[in-house]
Amino acid sequence: MVTTTPPATDRNRSRRAKSAARPGDRIFSGLSKGSGITLLVIMAAIAGFLTYRAVLAISKDSVNFFTTFEWNPAGDPPVFGIAVLAFGTIVSSVIAMLIAVPVAIGIALFISHYAPRKLAKPLAYVVDLLAAVPSIIYGLWGAIFLVPYLDGLNKWLDQYLGWTYIFDKSSDGVARNMFTVGILLAIMILPIITNVTREVFLQAPKMHEEAALALGATRWEVVRMAVLPFGRSGIISASMLGLGRALGETMAVAVVLSPSFLLSGHLLDPGGGTFAQNIAAKFNEANEFGRDALIASGLVLFVITLLVNGAARMIIARRKEYSGANA
Amino acid sequence: MAKRIDVSGLSAYYGSHKAIDDISMTVEPRSVTAFIGPSGCGKSTFLRTLNRMHEVTPGGRVEGKVMLDDENLYGSGVDPVAVRRTVGMVFQRPNPFPTMSIFDNVAAGLRLNGSYKKSELADIVEKSLKGANLWNEVKDRLNKPGSGLSGGQQQRLCIARAIAVEPEVLLMDEPCSALDPISTLAIEDLIGELKERFTIVIVTHNMQQAARVSDRTAFFNLAAVGQPGKLIELDDTERIFSNPSVQATEDYISGRFG
Amino acid sequence: MSHAVQERPVAFAKPRGPLSHARLPRWTPIAVAAGSVAAGVGIGLLAGWHSKVQWGLVSALLFVLATYAVTAKVEGARQAKDRVATSLVWVSFVLAVVPLLSLAWVTVSKGMEVLDGYFLTHSMNGVLDAEAGGGVYHALLGTIEQVGIATLIAAPIGLLTAVYLVEYGTGKLAKAVTFFVDVMTGIPSIVAGLFILATWNLMLGFGPSGFAGAMALAILMMPVVVRSTEEMLKLVPNELREASLALGVPKWRTILKVVLPTAIGGITTGVMLAVARITGETAPVLLLVFGTKLINPNPFEGAQSSLPLYVYEQYAVGTDAAVARAWAAALVLIAFVMILNLVARGIARWKAPKTGR
Fold this sequence. Notes:
The complex is a heterotrimer of chains A (327), B (258) and C (357).
Chain A: H1 7-20, H2 22-60, E1 71-72, E2 79-80, H3 83-114, H4 117-130, H5 135-161, H6 178-203, H7 206-214, H8 219-248, H9 251-256, H10 275-282, H11 288-326
Antiparallel strand pairs in A: 1-2
Helix pairs in contact in A: 2-11, 3-6, 3-8, 4-6, 5-6, 6-8, 7-8, 8-11, 10-11
Chain B: E1 5-14, E2 17-27, E3 32-36, H1 43-49, E4 60-68, E5 71-72, H2 80-86, E6 87-90, H3 102-112, H4 118-131, H5 135-138, H6 151-164, E7 169-173, H7 181-194, E8 199-203, H8 207-213, E9 216-222, E10 229-236, H9 237-242, H10 247-253
Helix pairs in contact in B: 3-4, 3-6, 4-6, 6-7
Chain C: H1 28-47, H2 52-74, H3 77-114, H4 117-121, H5 137-168, H6 171-185, H7 189-203, H8 210-235, H9 238-246, H10 251-279, H11 283-288, H12 307-317, H13 320-350
Helix pairs in contact in C: 1-2, 2-3, 3-13, 5-8, 5-10, 5-12, 6-8, 7-8, 8-10, 9-10, 10-13, 12-13
Subcellular location (chain C): Cell membrane
Pfam families (chain C): BPD_transp_1
Family (chain C): Belongs to the binding-protein-dependent transport system permease family. CysTW subfamily.
């Protein structure tokens, strides 16, 4: 549009509007903008300082930081590497996901489509509350209660599935192993994944469910035709959120696992470690250089969780476009 | 194909609220029966009792008998899933499955009920889309999502999906209320063709539409808000619109209320 | 046109079966479930499995298989699939509820053994590891101080950031803030602890203190506050803002007097839920607050304790008396968190804005 008014009038008017509101508005908008910038600065500082300390540590590492199976930064020369930690972190999280995602989808469906209505509401509320239980309590419960209960299952898996190598149990110790950690992590992330998935399932359009019903679909076929396809990206992003939690979980793992710096594919043998668990366990005895080494491993964990969360965000963003096109 | 529906003493409830009261009527095969009446008179609820969709809504409950030829839809041992396969339905708002292609949308009902060879499936899909007067518009893009079609095309896609499984009866719940006049006309033409093969029941708010497409018309009314809806009269469409036997029908049709 | 010259032989939809077919009575799933559990328990007893986990898994497996077999025989394959899906959904529900119930039950029953007034009002000063007695007073005090300071830092920054994003934010800066708030939500708590360790302790040379822990907790709390406040502010209808602006009220007063009061219930809920979340965080406290047996009321000087850290320490000690204290402290912690949650949700319900669902 072409305006015939001279631009000066426009500027005048806006200046007047601004000056009328100047003192309060300036301060308030400045404050809120400042807070936003503070947040960015904190994020930058986290990345910057962790990287700085990590570089300090890694530059003095006498071996390859990524492929070494040992953690002895106090030695002469210092020897430390994250291979075991990366392996343990990924393995425990994968086990947790394999268990938690299907079960969470099941519970979410239970709440959204299967449970009697009187049961569904309170149940959803309880799951909400469970997401708030502190992780140290899961850890305490896991170490004292879950571990002895899983002994039998461990022996069983060894006996019948020992040939798969991963379930081969070579030592006779208690079940303070990666498998137990995986199960405990699964229980911990279950409420988070369930909550997000349930919300998505509840949003599945009624009219598509009715369409499927009217074609003579059974309840399961309705879910398969009209609910799951709609919820797919929601399930994925919920799982990513859960994965992010599992990767960074510290205390529950630290309490349950009996750690070692052996890389073992036998999930039922005690040993292994995760980034977060290792930091919590080694921190007290570490000198300043040792702390820098731990910070270096923390940085790797930070980057991994950033990637996972970034992926989740991208999926959510894509879904928005997708559903917009269908609206 | 095309069976007679015989309803007797049918009442439907939402929880403790009675939505329709003691309805009895006969719907003739291979004809179009229109349900008209003011909002809230229970005509849509009644329609949904004819394929047991009413009981899907929370608290939905039905009493009475609906005979499809000689089988009672509410008899013991009757599987509602089988009923809905036999009595198809088209909804107010077009609702093709958004994640499926046009082809898969039409094939959706077939795939539920057994395995077909690829060529068989293609044949039936083509036949159904032709039956819904949509084939020429979509034959080059069967693999595109159904949500990319216009509203009227989507509704005809839903009709194709419903007739692909060759039901006995086709229920239509205000199928044109979300469409523009041209799409409405296309659907009305289609209804005229479909009645050669199916028993059709259509709920409509538009009395001209009822007059144009239907052979028989049923008028529903309710005594007051909160009261259950009742069937006032059912007769040949011509008679209902020219010389109804009940005063309320005449009042409604001549626009005195509703 | 539809009158094609040469129609291919046209396929037909498969013929329907009758409307009614043999159906299982309504009590079938319950009967199958009861039978499976009985069989699972029986097998477990016979085989002498010590762990109930195995009993449960066998029962669940039997339940699903039996459901399929019975339904497939009587009702047909499609119905069998449907029933198996239903039974799987139920099984996953039970599978999840059992450990969670066990967690709640164990914490409460074990925690009650030691928990009393004495436990809440005394520290661990002079209590030996193997000895019964002692309490959580110092840890409770530490938790309240650390969480309080963290809230004082995080709540205003988070709130103002949300106001910026909803009321002022446009362009690149707002996009960047939104993105990094999401990124920040995913930071593992131990990484936040390491960050404060790297700056406050290693670079600036401060020792462990409650304040250091509070800063790490604040980092974890900020994004949660921003997210929930943002959601609440977005729920405030634009008409309210416009009505106020049209009266000549300046924007900042509109936000303070109209927008924030409308959303205050939801914002309070969000902040309280965030507080509940950081109350249970152990890892950063472990790195930065260090833990002590003594009462240290000064969060800026010297090591403190905190509830989650106390649980961890007592568990690590491992004596019977210490583990009993760990459970009691866990119960105090869980009660603290749950009360915060319930009150927050109560406020949300009570102050729920009339718009939306």
